[in-house]
From TrEMBL:
PROSITE patterns: ADH_SHORT. Residues 328-356 are annotated as: Disordered. One of its GO terms (molecular function) is oxidoreductase activity. This is Uncharacterized protein. It comes from Klebsormidium nitens (Green alga).
Amino acid sequence: MMEVEDTSLGFTNRLLNVVAPVTIFVTVAVTSPVLLVWRGVKQLANRPLDMRDKVVVVTGASSGIGMHISYQYAGLGSRLALVARREEKLDAVAEECRRRGAPDVLTVPADLGTQDGCREAVEQAAKHYGRLDCVVLNAGVAHIYKFEEVQETEGFRSIMDVNFWGYVFCAKYALKHLRQTGGQLVVNDSIAEFVPEPNLSIYNASKAAVSQFFETLRLEAGPGIPITIFQPGVVKSEMTDGKVILADGRWSSAEEGRELRKEPGFGLFPVLPTPALAKAAVAAARRKTMRAVIPSWYKSMLFLRLFSPELFMASLSWLFRGDRTPAKAAQDKMGGGFKAPSDADMREGGYRKSEE
Ligand SMILES: NC(=O)c1ccc[n+]([C@@H]2O[C@H](COP(=O)([O-])OP(=O)(O)OC[C@H]3O[C@@H](n4cnc5c(N)ncnc54)[C@H](OP(=O)(O)O)[C@@H]3O)[C@@H](O)[C@H]2O)c1
């Protein structure tokens, strides 16, 4: 006899539909003032971690955010392991780190889009220094295309390989070293985790995956492994200069990068100077802050999304879809506000690999 599918939610679920939100709302309302005071006290009592002589691994250290985070730790007297693919760029960053006060800087050329690359990068750093105190997961790539326009679908995986699996495997190999020192993970996520800006579908998904993975790891690993997830808004870097993967699977040329920045959705938000972002992110990590949205005004978008999803999506649609949007107007106004990377820059490190 065929079983009739039970479509009712059941008594317990129906009860929880009402009881759970009310309980949580009341709990949040009652505890918020206490938590606010507690956070303030904690902020005053908790001295930021002293990073002098601590061993810090930074992935994606050859440019942009990773480069500036390396400079921050260098200024704090940390010993550094800088990881990325472009060796010459890493050497230049290493030199600047030494100049800023890092007592020892190791460069580790590695492709973090592969599991072997992640393992070798972490193990080389651990072997060189004999310990790891902090691992900053930052290496990432982006694309600009509409999902439907993509001709080369292999690129989807390559984005996840670096942005998600690169973080996961580096964390996997780093954890045993961090356990020994009481060290920490610092995760560069993005506001893309909660702002589904068009033309960035796979990128946005990779950032949402990173967020959920490391929140789960936070619970599994417990307080012995502090995890700081920071979520930058738009920050000046090679990526936001227009170095992205295109719908046909190629990396953009400098000229294409310049053109792309005229697209709606690319550059509506104010651009944060990279050193300011790096300083705020490292400050959050040193205080073992669980999550930091930088700058914090982006949190209001998170609230809007939670409490009024219809208005949230309508606002994004108004901002980004079509030709005559505020995003497009902002783009036109900014014109060449960004400096595009040179063609030579674009060719380095296999950035035009798929074309050659
Ligand atoms: N810029 C923003 O507005 C913004 C906002 C939020 C979050 N983020 C995130 O910040 C991180 C850094 O990006 P960015 O903006 O600073 O861009 P960027 O200047 O393009 O830096 C990306 C870094 O990742 C490295 N990288 C890329 N693929 C790699 C691979 N397969 N193996 C090893 N390293 C690799 C690059 O080094 P090589 O090319 O030398 O390998 C470079 O050092 C990314 O995770 C990005 O998603 C950026």
